[in-house]
Design a protein that fits this description.
This protein is mostly helical. Helices cover about 45% and strands about 10% of the residues. It has a single domain, classed as Rossmann fold (3-Layer(aba) Sandwich). Helix 2 crosses helix 3. Bound molecules: adenosine-5'-triphosphate and the ligand Nc1ccn([C@@H]2O[C@H](COP(=O)(O)O)[C@@H](O)[C@H]2O)c(=O)n1. Ligand L45E5XJ5 binds next to helix 2 and helix 3.
């Protein structure tokens, strides 16, 4: 695979739905960048040592119900305003998608 596909758009415009279907159809991997913020928020709220966790297990996941509670949504939104966190997540996604063959939505 020699390329990746990025899909951006307004909130609730269907990025995840179309991106996930597209990835399945093309046999690409799927990444929902919003889920990365939610994952970080989950560990922030639960005070778990985040260093023990990697983002790899978020590949090909969509709408993980545990990450869509109100408190996680609010914490993810708060964390996403932090420049360092944005840089960290962008770097992680760049690392994960180096191999190509990804649909990334966000
Ligand atoms: N083509 C479509 N027609 C009607 N409803 C749709 C369509 N695509 C997605 N939806 C619905 O719209 C809602 C938002 O879709 P989705 O989660 O894919 O959007 P999103 O852009 O990824 O949202 P967010 O910005 O919150 O991450 C969902 O309830 C989904 O089922
Ligand atoms: N590229 C992105 C994606 C998401 N965010 C923030 O993460 C929160 C959760 O995203 P969802 O798409 O799962 O709702 C959301 O509140 C955004 O603030 C972002 O900053 N950049």
């Amino acid at each position: 695979m020699t390329f990746n596909i990025a899909i951006d758009g307004l909130t609730a415009s269907g990025k995840t739905s179309i991106g996930y279907s597209l990835a399945k159809r093309l046999n690409f991997n799927f990444i929902d960048s919003g889920l990365f913020y939610r994952y970080l928020a989950y560990y922030n709220i639960n005070s778990t040592n985040f260093n023990q966790h990697t983002y790899d297990n978020l590949i090909n996941c969509s709408n993980l119900s545990a990450f869509y509670s109100l408190d996680i949504s609010q914490k993810a939104s708060e964390l996403s305003k932090d420049k360092e966190i944005r840089t960290l997540i962008n770097q992680e996604i760049k690392k994960l998608t180096k191999k190509k063959g990804f649909v990334v939505v966000g």
